[in-house]
Amino acid sequence: MNSRRPDGGCDGNGGSGSGSGNDSGNDSGNGGGDAERRREREYEDVYARLKAYEGRAAAVAGVGKDPVNEPMIRHWCEATGDTNPAYAGPDAVAPPTMLQVWTMGGLSGHGERSGAYDELLGLLDGAGYTAVVATDCEQEYLRPLRPGDRITFDAVIESVSERKTTRLGTGYFVTTRTEVRAGGRLAGTHRFRILKYVPAKQRRKDGEREAGKSRTGHTSHTSHAGRTDCTGRGAAGSGAATRPVRPRPVVNRDNAGFWEGVSRHRLLIQRCTECGTPRFPWLPGCNSCGCPEWDTVETAGEGTVYSYVVMHHPPFPAFDPPYAVGLVELAEGVRIISNVVGVPHDRVRIGMPVRLEFERVDEELELPVFRPVGADGS
Amino acid sequence: MTIRDGTGGGAVRVGDVLPSLEISITRTLVVAGAIASRDYQDVHHDAEAARRKGSPDIFMNILTTNGLVGRYVTDHFGSGAVLRGVAIRLGAPNHPGDTMVLTGVVEDVRDDTVTVRVVGANGLGRHVTGTVTVTVTAPVPVPVPVPAPEAGAVPGAGAGAGGAAVRSAEEAPS
């Protein structure tokens, strides 16, 4: 099974990178309510259709293309550097971790995969989840396999997850469970999980990384656009080389005033007109007294680092780790999450005085960020 | 029974740390592993194709990782060790030029069965986390000559692998 599976990607639940204040790091809010609701309905529809495949066969009466054999065992051991004497000689057994190998379709592909599994993958492809990575492999070995053993296997679609947003992007985890038999007797089981997701966009480094920050690996690591705009069949293989952009803030009725302020280089804090309590981020009502009436005050821009983290991994699209994300306490008494810029990430300290400035991230987006007082960025 | 590891290091106990194993992720290893596992996905051998799909380079397939994780544990416990289960989850990809360091900690020991928690970390983070279950039967004693104790011998000399192997063979139930 699973010959179409490019393995070895990543999993994990990446959230947002870290923009400022109200960045959700998630879907763009540009589409407005109707488009959002329509997309939600589409997602639900897709999910219901996906769930219907649970319990259906992924492979029926599959037959291993080759019997268990010494040459393939030797090639495997050479590749993995495994010199275990149990895998060589006249009484050799196959390395148990080869269990899946005996079921692989190879270049000539699978004849025995069921229609249901191909349908399921096709459904996901059609909904835009065209990229695939293997994320989990759980095997149990019940009996050793020996040269000459004839392999048969059956597989079932065990589960389809809800739509998940991971560092790679948004998609569905599909889990299959395969029973591998030798001479008709169960020799092992194999649970395999793939993530079918909206394919990544290629990332371009722009050389803006500060000197000395580059770390082996990070500079060349794939980043995967975390955007969930479900725009149909994906761009895998298209060669598109657009630089990923920062996540767009979700602008709604409750926080539109904040972003309007940012556009005029004013960082506005809400203030309850009933009890005078300032609040941030923007909310429809007062946390102290519940009053829905409010006005704004503009921050003078002075603050201190109340806390911070340094983001090393995972590297989100359009972000160049490592970078510092600060929880800045403004003089007006509220705290805001944003980037601390103009200082090496490992020099940020709690209590460090910082000052507000506005950073143009791209043509559309400006963000409030904080620079240590005295670090003029020159 | 008391399980002993294959290194002559004595009884296996929960919390034991396995010596780490460093694996250079060469292009050859990635390709050889993919082909030995009959996985012809282009992202495991064709760098151009991998880049078109958003990856900076080819990357190791999950079957090879599975094999390396299994090998790491059986290498440690020796020829008496038989894999009963390997469960892995992948994280950061293994690209050529990187190095993966496998580490393991004994999580459970029950009868003749040892469960080892394995982590493989590369320059990007954790490539793999997982659990390996292995049964460890009495290791076939390896005939290692034990240095004869001589007058003036350095105290402790001979208490390495050879001495321990003999001791473990003596105590191992048949």
Describe the model:
The complex is a heterodimer of chains A (378) and B (174). Helices cover 13% and strands 29% of the residues of chain A. With 378 residues, chain A is α+β, with helices and mostly antiparallel strands. Chain A has three domains: 32-197, Thiol Ester Dehydrase, Chain A (Roll), CATH 3.10.129.10; 251-298, no CATH class; 302-378, OB fold (Dihydrolipoamide Acetyltransferase, E2P), CATH 2.40.50. In chain A, strand 7 and strand 8 form a beta hairpin. The longest helix of chain A has 20 residues, at 32-51. By secondary structure, chain B is of the alpha+beta class. Chain B has one domain (17-140, 156-171): Thiol Ester Dehydrase, Chain A (Roll), CATH 3.10.129.10. In chain B, 25% of the residues lie in helices and 30% in strands. Chain B has four helices and five strands; from the N terminus they run E-H-H-H-E-E-E-E-H. Chains A and B meet through helix 2 and strand 2 of A and helix 1, helix 2, helix 3 and strand 2 of B. Strand 2 (131-141) of chain A pairs antiparallel with strand 2 of chain B, so a sheet runs across the interface.
Helix-strand layout with pairing:
The complex is a heterodimer of chains A (about 375) and B (about 170).
Chain A lengths: L31 H20 L5 E7 L6 H11 L34 H12 L4 E11 L9 E10 L3 E3 L2 E14 L2 E13 L58 H8 L4 E5 L5 E2 L14 E5 L3 E10 L11 E8 L4 E5 L13 E8 L5 E7 L6
Antiparallel strand pairs in A: 1-3, 2-6, 3-5, 4-5, 5-6, 7-8, 7-9, 10-11, 10-13, 11-12, 13-14
Chain B lengths: L16 E8 L2 H10 L10 H6 L9 H16 L3 E10 L8 E12 L2 E10 L2 E12 L24 H11 L3
Antiparallel strand pairs in B: 1-3, 2-5, 3-4, 4-5
Key attributes of the depicted protein:
A: 378 residues; alpha+beta; Thiol Ester Dehydrase, Chain A; OB fold (Dihydrolipoamide Acetyltransferase, E2P); 3 domains; 6-stranded antiparallel beta sheet; 5-stranded antiparallel beta sheet; 4 helices; elongated; B: alpha+beta; 30% strand; disordered C terminus
